[in-house]
Automatic annotation (TrEMBL):
Protein's name in the database: Simple sugar transport system substrate-binding protein
Statement: the UniProt record of this protein carries the keyword Transport: yes
InterPro entries: Bact_Solute-Bind_Prot2 (IPR050555), Peripla_BP_I (IPR028082), SBP_2_dom (IPR025997)
A Gene Ontology molecular function term of the record: carbohydrate binding
UniProt cross-references to Pfam families, sorted A to Z: Peripla_BP_4
Length: 332
């Protein structure tokens, strides 16, 4: 955990820098009404209009990406940025979206690198061609090779280790770690991190775009192995499905998860889910767009050559009340 502590200090300094620069760079123009999603409000930058392509590997129906998008839109509104938000779950399709962005001569690209092998060539092509690129959410081991200026997210292995430590502290005996997308390096790293610190855990795979099927798969696993006393999911919708699976299987297992949404925060509050590892997706989207604006308008980079970590942090009953109002606004 020493490595995490050092990176956390660097992140704190980076975020202070971003806050200061944003405060100094905003214009005194017309005051705009604050976004209903909890956006930044305030005045819009008087810098030249920019066009930014924001390309993710979001799967349909995954509410995590709603939070990322809201953060990106809030920064775009403040920074006088035209945001072109697109996504595709498959790496090859996502790479094609990067090529489309290159062809349309955008001023910057923010991209997730969950499937870096498929993405790297086109991302590097953009960077080598003079289009600044930042990475977020996935690809912490690959963003430098791809030529990105910075990375905003969490170290998934370290986040998984924190979850494994949590299981040990809570006295868990056996856990199952549920992966909703095969081939996603970040999700695999989370489960590996859990196993690093909590060896009596195993992985199962579900299809994240098929929630009824996912629920059935988790139910079957819990019926087959009564020794499982903790289900760890890797996304808020799957945690809520796991709650149903625990009920359907007659298991007494508890549920913890990575990532949040409004419903998940409510489930922590009422005790159906014990905790969530929060990587602050709204912040990832916001910083990705804002960093491109800072680079284009003032030559700034963030992170000093290191990833800017937005997590992990835990949300549980002890602090869920402080998060609830932000979740209600759609930003946590």
């Amino acid at each position: 955990m020493v490595r995490w502590q050092k990176k956390s200090a660097a992140v704190g300094a980076a975020l202070v820098l971003v806050t200061a620069l944003v405060a100094c760079s905003s214009s005194g123009g017309k005051q705009e009404e604050e976004q209903s999603s909890g956006g930044s409000g305030g005045s819009v930058a008087d810098t030249p209009r920019m066009k930014v392509a924001f390309i993710t590997h979001a799967a349909p129906g995954d509410t995590f990406w709603d939070l990322v998008r809201r953060g990106a839109e809030a920064a775009a509104k403040k920074d006088n940025v035209e945001l072109q938000y697109t996504g595709a779950p498959e790496g090859a399709d996502q790479a094609n979206l990067v090529q489309t962005a290159i062809d349309s001569k955008v001023d910057g690209i923010a991209v997730t690198l969950a499937k870096a092998d498929a993405m790297q060539a086109n991302v590097k092509k953009a960077a080598d061609g003079g289009i600044p690129v930042v990475a977020l959410n996935g690809g912490i081991e690959a963003w430098k090779q791809a030529g990105a200026l910075g990375y905003f997210g969490q170290d998934e292995r370290i986040a998984g280790q924190a979850a494994g430590d949590k299981l040990t502290q809570l006295g868990a005996k056996k856990a199952v770690c549920v992966i909703q997308e095969q081939g996603h390096v970040g999700l695999e790293a989370r489960c590996q991190g859990v196993k690093d610190k909590f060896p009596n855990s195993e992985k199962i795979y579900i299809t994240g775009t098929d929630m009824p099927g996912s629920t059935t798969t988790m139910t079957s696993k819990l019926q087959q192995d009564k020794s499982i006393d903790y289900v760890v999911t890797l996304g808020a919708p799957f945690a809520l499905a796991a709650v149903q699976s625990v009920k359907d299987s007659g298991s007494s297992a508890k549920v913890g998860t990575f990532d949040t949404n409004k419903d998940l925060v409510g489930a922590i509050k009422d005790g159906r889910v014990q905790w969530a590892v929060d990587q602050q997706p709204y912040l990832q989207g916001y910083l990705a767009v804002d960093s491109l604006w800072l680079y284009k308008t003032n030559g700034n980079t963030i992170g000093g050559g290191q990833a800017t970590l937005t997590g992990p942090a835990f949300i549980d009953k002890s602090n869920v009340a402080s998060v609830e109002k932000f979740a209600a606004a759609g930003t946590r």
